[in-house]
Amino acid sequence: MTPTLTRRAFAGVSVLLAPGWAQATSELQRETRALMGTHVRVLVPGRRDDVAPALADCWFQMQRLEALLSRYRPDNPVAALARAAGRAPVTVPVELLAVLRAARERAEQTDGAFDVTVGAYRDWHFEAGATTNVPSARRLAQQRPAVDWRAIEIDGSQVLLNRAGMRLDLGGIAKLPVLAAGLQALRRHGVRDALVDGGGDIGAMGRLDGRAWRVGLRDPMAPQQLLGAVSLEDGWIASSGDYERSFVRDGRRYHHVLNPRTGWPTEGVRGLSLLAADYRVLNGLGAALMVGGGERTGWLSSTPVDGVIVHAEGRRWQSAGLAARWATG
């Protein structure tokens, strides 16, 4: 008999827990905090007293890394790079260097469809509570010359944004390393089974009561529903979509995934989910595929990534390997 599932919905996916599994575990610790502009949840099987130190370190490491990489803080290296843009290099921490190197590699692979310098389009605001105005085409054209990943210069530990007005937006590539830092902290404390859920991005290690974690992929055409559930064991899911961090003006939806070449939100893809064993092969691909209109699936052919892409008209593309990942029962 297929167990009834309870759905804990977040931005792009849902963690599905069968009640029978949860009851079989003596305890399942669940903690949720606001982080990276979304709600991050950590699930760890075990007694509270046994896993509390691991959970504390998990949150500490994720919050520490978010503070370094966020574009919303005035006192971190990302802000310092923006202030020095076009003038002088800045010495940055190794964690930021690693993210910037990964961003440059993804930008080169995708012909600039992924570009962290979209932060120069600074008049867009999608965060909760922000004033949601639509920038003028003239304003976006003025900012466009500052958008070019090739203008990020890295020399040892020094980084220069070599054009005035350049700003970084690492949202498309920083979240997975932050979640990975949380899982690594848990592992250092001896935790072998855990799941971190960061608003559409999920990392899992081990199992829950001897079974792979079950994760539901949200349907971008009807976000209150799921496309289905996949099994996840020692792996990652990265999701992107136009249904979260968005607003509507004059009947048109504007969302946070921007086309670097135009400054306007992407069109053609409502959402997608990508799966891989290593988060590094996923990082930045979701945004790039949305910029590419979902037609550049060749970017996935040379990587061990499975996924599903839902186009604006409802057409769905699915990788050949995804069929084996759908959970049943």
UniProtKB/TrEMBL annotation:
<keyword id="KW-0274">FAD</keyword>
<dbReference type="InterPro" id="IPR024932">
    <property type="entry name" value="ApbE"/>
</dbReference>
<keyword id="KW-0479">Metal-binding</keyword>
<keyword id="KW-0808">Transferase</keyword>
<dbReference type="GO" id="GO:0046872">
    <property type="term" value="F:metal ion binding"/>
</dbReference>
<keyword id="KW-0460">Magnesium</keyword>
<feature type="binding site">
    <location>
        <position position="172"/>
    </location>
    <ligand>
        <name>Mg(2+)</name>
    </ligand>
</feature>
<keyword id="KW-0732">Signal</keyword>
<dbReference type="InterPro" id="IPR003374">
    <property type="entry name" value="ApbE-like_sf"/>
</dbReference>
<dbReference type="Pfam" id="PF02424">
    <property type="entry name" value="ApbE"/>
</dbReference>
<feature type="signal peptide">
    <location>
        <begin position="1"/>
        <end position="24"/>
    </location>
</feature>
<keyword id="KW-0285">Flavoprotein</keyword>
<protein>
    <recommendedName>
        <fullName>FAD:protein FMN transferase</fullName>
        <ecNumber>2.7.1.180</ecNumber>
    </recommendedName>
</protein>
<comment type="similarity">
    <text>Belongs to the ApbE family.</text>
</comment>
<dbReference type="GO" id="GO:0016740">
    <property type="term" value="F:transferase activity"/>
</dbReference>
